[in-house]
C-alpha cells in the first residue's frame, strides 16, 4: 500500500531529488510504497503500488550518446528508442550506459535513479508523451519512493529537451 505525503516546498531531509524540488519551490507529492526486491520491473511495481496507469509513471534511464552520459525519461509502459534519443540531442549513436557508471555519475542506485538532484547534472530528454498528463510520477531517488509533479516543472528543473523518445 502506498503512502502519500503532500509537499509544497519547506521541510528538510529527504533524497537529493526531494531536496532539489523543495529548494526550487516546485509543488510535488511524495508517494512511498513497500519495494519488493524480487520485482522484475521497478517502474511497473511502482505503478501498481500507487494505483497509477503505467503511462503516467516514468522511468529514468541513463544512456551513452556519442560518449556523453544522457538521461532519458520515458513511460514504464514502453521502451526507450535509442535512435530517437540520439537524434533529440544532436547525436549519432546511443547505447544504454554501463549501470555502474550510471550509479557513480548520478549518485543513485539502479531502480532508484531520479532525473532530479543528481551528483553530476546530466543532459536530460523527457518523452513528449509526458505533456499529455497533468502530473507524472518519477523516482524520488530510491526504490519504493516516487515523486508526482507536473511534466512542465520536471522539464524546467532538469533543462530537459522534450522529444518523442519512447515507443510502445
| Low-pLDDT residue intervals, each spanning 5 or more residues | 6-12
Average pLDDT works out at 91
H and E string: EHEHEEEHEHEEEHEE
Number of helices: 5
Structure description:
The protein has 168 residues and is of the alpha+beta class. It is built from 5 helices and 11 strands. It has a 5-stranded mixed β-sheet. A 4-stranded antiparallel β-sheet has the order 1-2-9-8. Strands 5-11 form a two-stranded antiparallel sheet. The longest helix has 9 residues, at 16-24. The protein starts with a strand and ends with a strand. Mean pLDDT is 91; it is low at 6-12.
Summarize the structure.
The protein is of the alpha+beta class. It contains five helices and eleven strands, in the order E-H-E-H-E-E-E-H-E-H-E-E-E-H-E-E.
Question: Topology of this protein?
Answer:
Blueprint: E1 3-7, H1 16-24, E2 28-32, H2 42-50, E3 58-65, E4 68-75, E5 79-80, H3 82-88, E6 94-96, H4 99-106, E7 123-127, E8 136-142, E9 145-149, H5 151-158, E10 161-163, E11 166-167
Parallel strand pairs: 4-7, 7-10
Antiparallel strand pairs: 1-2, 2-9, 3-4, 3-6, 5-11, 8-9
Amino acid at each position: 500500500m502506498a503512502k502519500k505525503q503532500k509537499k509544497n516546498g519547506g521541510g528538510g531531509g529527504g533524497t537529493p531529488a526531494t531536496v532539489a524540488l523543495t529548494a526550487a519551490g516546485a509543488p510535488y507529492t511524495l508517494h512511498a510504497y513497500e519495494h519488493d526486491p524480487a520485482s522484475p520491473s521497478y517502474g511497473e511495481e511502482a505503478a501498481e503500488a500507487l494505483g497509477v496507469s503505467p503511462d503516467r509513471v516514468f522511468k529514468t534511464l541513463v544512456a551513452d550518446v556519442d560518449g556523453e552520459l544522457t538521461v532519458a525519461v520515458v513511460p514504464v509502459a514502453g521502451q526507450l528508442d535509442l535512435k530517437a534519443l540520439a537524434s533529440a540531442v544532436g547525436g549519432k549513436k546511443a547505447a544504454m550506459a554501463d549501470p555502474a557508471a550510471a550509479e557513480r555519475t548520478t549518485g543513485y542506485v539502479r531502480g532508484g535513479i531520479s532525473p532530479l538532484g543528481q551528483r553530476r547534472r546530466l543532459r536530460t530528454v523527457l518523452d513528449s508523451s509526458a505533456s499529455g498528463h497533468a502530473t507524472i510520477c518519477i523516482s524520488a531517488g530510491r526504490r519504493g519512493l516516487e515523486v508526482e509533479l507536473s511534466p512542465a516543472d520536471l522539464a524546467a528543473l532538469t533543462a530537459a529537451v522534450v522529444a518523442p523518445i519512447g515507443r510502445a
